């Protein structure tokens, strides 16, 4: 009987100041492909606060990984265009999102991290594996974003937008981290709140996210200008069964304040509690049947009045940019997109 090949071993070091999107997307995508990814802290503690206040609990300390061998080592933030002029003369700068040269793969920045991660998967596993991962995630590599807006209303907030992002074990780490990163870049006050027994949440593909507070403490800070629920199973089911979160969402709806969800959370948090009544929404295609009218599943991001939804992890960056446009205006959304290298 043939034995299955051992998984590819990948090392991804993080340190204070690491770009959250550039780290989280390769971790997520490589683990989806079947790689054994070790997230290693380059400091002296497993808990690492990377950029924009995102807190990750690493798997190991980097110093403890020195004796091991890896099929791939991934370093976030290697080739951003802002730093190209710092390349030594022997390095040739290429105007491309991702460059593969022999056994070296480099990418430009946060918004191209998906393309970078897929290039790594192709090097380890081949093009077929890339297609298997990319299709259900609705991955696209073109820059820019669009949203279908129905029943347009102005979203109001006084001063700095205050945003609640609840998390639970099994959520999509990519969705949660992209939202926190992008909204904090735009200077929103984002509160990441755990619906579990402690602040450490283990996401769908093993990333251990450390929340800012427990959900009951976050509830004491209400009202919020916006509540966003990330998808991913079983996290979405946990959040859908959380009475405290449902109560916050219902108060948000009654006050005509914005709220939204991505993917599974639309079907398992908003729909069962009547939070989509009279609204059009989108979710992942596999869950469209759980929406009352089948949803607007041909659209990647849908805004209906004060409700914003999108379909899958591959739409999370577009979703974040759409949120910033609605809350802070198109100019701020453009500044965000430029910083992320997300313009087409």
UniProtKB/TrEMBL annotation:
CDD domains: GATase1_DJ-1. Coiled coil: none annotated. It comes from the Eukaryota. GO terms for cellular component: cytoplasm. Keywords: Repeat. One of its GO terms (biological process) is glyoxal metabolic process. SUPFAM superfamilies: Class I glutamine amidotransferase-like (SSF52317). InterPro entries: Class_I_gatase-like, DJ-1, DJ-1/PfpI, Prot/Nucl_acid_deglycase. Residues 8-76, 162-325 form the DJ-1/PfpI domain. Pfam families: DJ-1_PfpI. The keyword Repeat applies. PANTHER family: PARKINSON DISEASE PROTEIN 7 HOMOLOG (PTHR48094:SF12), PROTEIN/NUCLEIC ACID DEGLYCASE DJ-1-RELATED (PTHR48094). Belongs to the peptidase C56 family. This is DJ-1/PfpI domain-containing protein. It comes from Aegilops tauschii subsp. strangulata.
């Amino acid at each position: 009987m043939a034995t299955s090949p051992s998984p590819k071993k990948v090392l991804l070091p993080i340190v204070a100041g690491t770009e959250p999107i550039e780290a989280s997307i390769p971790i997520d995508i490589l683990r989806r492909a079947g790689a054994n990814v070790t997230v290693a802290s380059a400091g002296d503690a497993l808990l690492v606060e990377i950029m924009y206040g995102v807190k990750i609990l690493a798997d190991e300390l980097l110093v403890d990984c020195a004796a091991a061998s890896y099929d791939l080592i991934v370093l976030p933030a290697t080739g951003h265009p802002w730093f190209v002029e710092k390349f030594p003369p022997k390095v040739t700068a290429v105007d491309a999102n991702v460059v593969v040269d022999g056994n070296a793969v480099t990418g430009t920045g946060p918004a191209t991290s998906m393309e970078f991660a897929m290039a790594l998967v192709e090097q380890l596993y081949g093009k077929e594996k890339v297609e298997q991962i990319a299709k259900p995630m609705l991955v696209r590599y073109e820059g820019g974003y669009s949203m279908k807006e129905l029943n347009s209303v102005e979203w109001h907030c006084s001063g700095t937008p205050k945003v609640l992002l609840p998390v639970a074990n099994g959520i999509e780490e990519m969705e949660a981290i992209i939202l926190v990163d992008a909204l904090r870049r735009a200077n929103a006050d984002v509160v990441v709140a755990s619906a579990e027994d402690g602040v450490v949440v283990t996401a769908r593909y093993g990333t251990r996210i450390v929340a800012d507070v427990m959900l009951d403490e976050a509830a004491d800070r209400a009202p919020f200008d916006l509540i966003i629920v990330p998808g991913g199973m079983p996290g979405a089911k946990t959040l859908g069964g959380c009475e405290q979160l449902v109560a916050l969402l219902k108060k948000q709806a009654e006050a005509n304040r914005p709220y939204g969800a991505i993917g599974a959370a639309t079907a398992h948090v908003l729909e069962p509690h009547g939070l989509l009544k009279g609204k059009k929404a989108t979710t992942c295609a596999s869950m469209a049947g759980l929406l009352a009218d089948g949803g607007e599943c041909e659209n990647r991001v849908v805004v209906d009045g004060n409700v914003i939804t999108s379909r899958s992890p591959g739409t999370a960056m577009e979703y974040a940019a759409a949120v910033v446009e609605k809350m802070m205006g198109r100019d701020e959304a453009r500044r965000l997109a430029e910083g992320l290298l997300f313009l087409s």
